[in-house]
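[Meeting: bench + compute handoff]

Bench side (C.D.) handed over the final construct sequence. Compute side (W.E.) agreed to return the predicted structure before the next meeting so the bench team could plan truncations. Sequence as handed over:
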Amino acid sequence: MIFGCSPKSESHQPITLHPKNPHYFLFRGKPALLIGSTEHYGAVMNLDFDYIVYLNEIASSGLNITRTFSGAYVEPDGAFGIKKNTLAPGPGRYICPWIRSKEDGYANGGNKFDLSEWDEAYFTRLKDFIVQAGERDIIVELDLFSNYYDTVQWKLSPLNAINNINRVGDFRDHKEVLSLKHTGLLKVQENMVRKIVHELKDFDNLYYEVCNEPYFGDTLALRQWEDHMTSVVVEAEKDFKFRHLVSNNVANNKKLISLPREGVSIYNFHYARPPVTVGMNYHLNCVIGDNETGFDGIDDSKYRTEAWDFILSGGALFNNLDYSFTTETEDGTFRLEPGQPGGGGEKLRDQFRILANFMKSFDFISTKPVNSSGIRISDQSGLMVTGLSENDEILALYLHRKAGTAAMSSFEIELSAGAYNMIWTDPEKGTQTVASITSKKKEWIRISTPAFREDIALKIVKSD
């Protein structure tokens, strides 16, 4: 399965913020935004997961980001009600940065870990995963750490003293793992970061997220630890020709970040609804992302509308958590039943492809979010509108409302004098209809939509 372990090109600058508009990315010389639908983060650490099949499906779906965990955190089978959870490898199928020792006794079977020695097989697999993603123009978000939500995850961690021969992590409280309290553990964490950063220094399709959901528990201690680990990444890369972007996972739903954080270029949220998340943090002049969805049933429309709302409000990164990817169905064909914590599947990935293609159809680098005063809603149907404008001219809009019987809606926007084509897109099916409108001077124009049931997108193009 391992095909190669070299970056595509050592001359490429890693994905970075776009110099003309840092709310978006620049990747391999082209403007970029990231839209994905990702397995539950165990692609590298779970030896039963065939990531070639998985990456082929992501690429064929027209998507360009995947999120994976380093292996420092692992889950037990059945965690969070997830069926066939890729973050819960079977006995003997778990691989992480540290090598297995000769001493039996790891909590989930096999030998304990030696935190003083690296497992080169792990780094071979990790690098090949990124190589294969890069060959498909897929960006890898590598999460170095994750919060320990309860003792069940801590009991499986190599950092727990019961699972290593080094007696590191000799305490019970899982809330102390991501803190500055235990110097021996902290040194091991720092060494892991430096090792990973060194091994991956030449990859261009990569950025780091310091920690997944570091906001459950002692938030002050977690923030201090996260700041420290962010500085470790930055310091480890200070002499590199090119440096990677660093993400902080800020909060579930929304939170105001008053000032930029040192060393951070991407601010990721989970379950980011409503789209006010982007607007309230737009002043940071960095990428705002929504890199995990879920806990909203298995219906496609919940995640489709979240994606369109987020991206059309000025976000540059949306990554759905797709539970249809498992170690037996790496092609994303696992059938989701009610009760699963989130959605996924081929039909939903097709809907994300429609969004990606919609955004590629215009110069999003030149846009900014539509000001709330730039749209007048002229009916009482509960219509919500987000959009992007260029030079204060409306360019693209997304309209949605509570699902119901197909009906028309109307709204007003201000346009300069000229003739315009209006290209309407069905976000679920991708079908398009075209209409035209003319403005004799700069004025408010009323626009009536085609009949739609839940959501519809509009691109406005000047035709003269």
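W.E. noted at the follow-up: Residues 370-462 form a domain with the Immunoglobulin-like fold (CATH 2.60.40). C.D. will use this when planning the next construct.
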